């Protein structure tokens, strides 16, 4: 193991000891994870991103149930603290700035253990809170647009929920690819955010008709049960719809409307990604960061691990901010 500044023996981390609401999240002192594998990386976490799915897992009602107790968090950003002996210094070294996508331990902690395949270098000039907006949102956006819907330059693309963590990345990646991007958002501040991200025009979720008769070659649904019925009415022939999120049955969907357009609705599940998918995705994300066509949008920020429960509540309720990513700044 190569290291220039050994991590301390203990750290602060959020632990969930029983499933339930956000009050089950408590900060405790625990042992810092050890680099026991030759391909392990220990990251000093400075910012952690919060996903809606993190809250579903915490309740114990999601299909994936971690062994209790566990530390939540699948995304984050920080500084490499230690690396396994098989990792070449030319590849990744102590002190490098990185973002995390799929760690071995949770990111709501002062240190996080990862396999090398889950750690991606960023330029030193990228703020850590912006880098913590990557991971699940950016990987989901890429999978929806490129792996599943296979967008092409020049196509018209609709992003429902264009102001959210995944939505803002969708907008920027689709525009970078040469698409004409439209969006929806629920609030005025959200619509302003979506326009700044690169949308040509933005409407309320239930007002696609205000987009002057545009039909869409591709549509990305963040809450399909609420919006897909109307989306179908505005699809071009042969359109593709990617369903990223859904919380119930979709009322008002007439399958004949899909038949007449020969349109396709497909699910998008990040968990189905292969190792090759992950590598392709994060290479593309790193490239977009480097050419500044991707600028992650930070929404509500919470200072300190003690605020992690509030951050979990915010990612669902959106009381403090209706756009961007919910981020927790991890005190060191």
> Termini distance?
23 Å
Bulk shape: globular
Flag low-confidence runs.
none
Number of domains: 2
Question: If you consult CATH, what is the topology of the largest domain?
Answer: Quinone Oxidoreductase, Chain A, domain 1
Strand percentage lies at 25-35%
CATH architecture of the largest domain, please? Alpha-Beta Complex
Distinct helical segment count: 9
Calculate the mean pLDDT score and round it: 95
Order of helices and strands: EEEHEEEEHHEHEHEEHEHEHEHE
Radius of gyration in whole Å, from Cα? 20 Å
Specify the CATH homologous superfamily of the largest domain: Medium-chain alcohol dehydrogenases, catalytic domain
Provide the structure class. Answer: alpha/beta
In the CATH scheme, the class of the largest domain would be Alpha Beta
Helix percent reads 25-40%
Profile the largest sheet: 7 strands, mixed
Q: How many distinct beta strands?
A: 15
Task: Set out the fold topology.
Layout: E1 10-16, E2 25-31, E3 40-50, H1 52-59, E4 75-83, E5 97-101, E6 111-115, E7 119-121, H2 128-131, H3 136-148, E8 156-159, H4 165-176, E9 180-184, H5 188-197, E10 201-203, E11 216-221, H6 224-232, E12 235-243, H7 255-261, E13 264-267, H8 275-290, E14 298-303, H9 308-317, E15 325-329
Parallel strand pairs: 8-9, 8-11, 9-10, 11-12, 12-13, 14-15
Antiparallel strand pairs: 1-2, 3-4, 3-6, 3-15, 4-5, 5-7
Helix pairs in contact: 3-4, 3-8
What would you note in describing this structure?
The protein is 27% helix and 27% strand. The protein is built from nine helices and 15 strands. Strands 3, 4, 5, 6, 7, 14 and 15 form a seven-stranded mixed beta sheet that branches. A six-stranded parallel beta sheet has the order 10-9-8-11-12-13, sandwiched between helices. Helix 3 packs across helix 4 and helix 3 packs across helix 8. The longest helix is centred in the last third of the chain and has 16 residues. It comes from Pycnococcus provasolii. Keywords: NADP. InterPro entries: ADH-like_C (IPR013149), ADH-like_N (IPR013154), ER (IPR020843), GroES-like_sf (IPR011032), NAD(P)-bd_dom_sf (IPR036291), Zinc-ADH_QOR/CCCR (IPR051603). It holds the Pfam family ADH_zinc_N.
């Amino acid at each position: 193991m190569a290291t220039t500044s050994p991590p301390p023996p203990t750290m602060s981390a959020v632990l969930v000891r029983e499933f339930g609401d956000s009050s089950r999240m408590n900060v405790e002192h625990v042992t810092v994870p050890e680099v026991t594998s030759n391909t392990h990386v220990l990251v000093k976490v400075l910012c952690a991103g919060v996903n809606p799915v993190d809250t579903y897992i915490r309740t114990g009602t999601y299909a994936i149930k971690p062994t209790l107790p566990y530390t939540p968090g699948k995304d984050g950003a920080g500084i490499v603290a230690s690396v396994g002996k098989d990792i070449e210094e030319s590849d990744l070294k102590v002190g490098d700035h990185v973002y995390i996508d799929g760690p071995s331990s949770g990111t709501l902690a002062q240190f996080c253990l990862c396999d090398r395949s889950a750690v991606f270098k960023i330029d030193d000039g990228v703020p850590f809170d912006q880098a913590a907006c990557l991971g699940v949102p950016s990987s989901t956006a890429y999978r929806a647009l490129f792996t599943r819907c296979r967008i092409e330059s020049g196509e018209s693309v609709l992003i429902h929920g264009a102001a959210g963590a995944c939505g803002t990345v969708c907008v920027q990646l689709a525009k970078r690819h040469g698409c004409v991007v439209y969006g929806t958002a629920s609030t005025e501040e959200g619509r302003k955010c979506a326009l700044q991200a690169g949308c040509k025009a933005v409407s309320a979720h239930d007002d696609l008709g205000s987009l002057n008769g545009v039909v869409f070659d591709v549509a990305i649904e963040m809450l399909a049960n609420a919006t897909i019925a109307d989306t179908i009415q505005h699809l071009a022939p042969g359109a593709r719809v990617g369903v990223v999120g859904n919380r119930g049955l979709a009322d008002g969907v007439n399958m004949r409307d899909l038949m007449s357009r020969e349109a396709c609705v497909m699910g998008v599940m990040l968990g189905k990604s292969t190792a090759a998918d992950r590598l392709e995705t994060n290479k593309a994300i790193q490239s977009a960061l480097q050419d500044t066509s991707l600028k992650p949008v930070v929404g509500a920020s919470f200072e300190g691990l003690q605020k992690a429960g509030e951050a979990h509540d915010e990612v669902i309720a959106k009381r403090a901010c209706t756009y961007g990513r919910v981020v927790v700044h991890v005190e060191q």
